[in-house]
């Protein structure tokens, strides 16, 4: 039996082929097999990032509504990699003194 991915919409395991498309019988979602390929997240230096990694900010970052920027060299622990809803920010984390933030992988390096 072929190992098909779960439905990206509802996470159903009952996905089947319909021509070149994959179809979920539970929610009716149709998708291409390439659409669910595992995304690889890389930092500014090209190192692969994983959930739970510690990263360092490589440039000062202005924060709207904050009294000052996030300084270059700030260490951020226990990052969570997310699928970017806005198409840009793909790291969810908590920064000391700022709270919960979204960052781009292009402004961090692996510690």
UniProtKB/TrEMBL annotation:
The domain of life is Bacteria
Pfam families according to UniProt: YjdM, Zn_Ribbon_YjdM
| Residue ranges of domain Protein YjdM N-terminal in the record | 4-32
Q: By its UniProt entry, which InterPro entries does this protein fall under? A: YjdM, YjdM_C, YjdM_N
Which keywords accompany this UniProt record?
Hydrolase
Is the keyword Plastid in the record? no
**UniProt domain Protein YjdM C-terminal: residue ranges:** 42-111
Q: Which GO terms describe its molecular function?
A: hydrolase activity
Entry similarity comment: Belongs to the YjdM family.
Which NCBIfam families does its entry note?
Answer: phnA
Task: Kindly provide the name given to this protein in its UniProt entry.
Answer: Phosphonoacetate hydrolase
Protein's organism:
Halodesulfovibrio marinisediminis DSM 17456
């Amino acid at each position: 039996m072929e190992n098909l991915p779960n439905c990206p919409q509802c996470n159903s395991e009952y996905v089947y082929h319909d021509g070149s498309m994959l179809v979920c019988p539970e929610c009716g979602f149709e998708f291409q097999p390439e659409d669910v390929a595992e995304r690889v997240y890389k930092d500014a230096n090209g190192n692969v990032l994983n959930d739970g990694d510690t990263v360092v900010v490589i440039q000062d970052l202005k924060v709207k509504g904050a009294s000052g920027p996030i300084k270059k060299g700030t260490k951020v622990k226990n990052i969570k990699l997310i699928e970017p809803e806005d198409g840009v920010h793909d790291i969810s984390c908590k920064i000391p003194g700022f709270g919960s933030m979204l960052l781009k992988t292009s402004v961090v390096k692996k510690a």
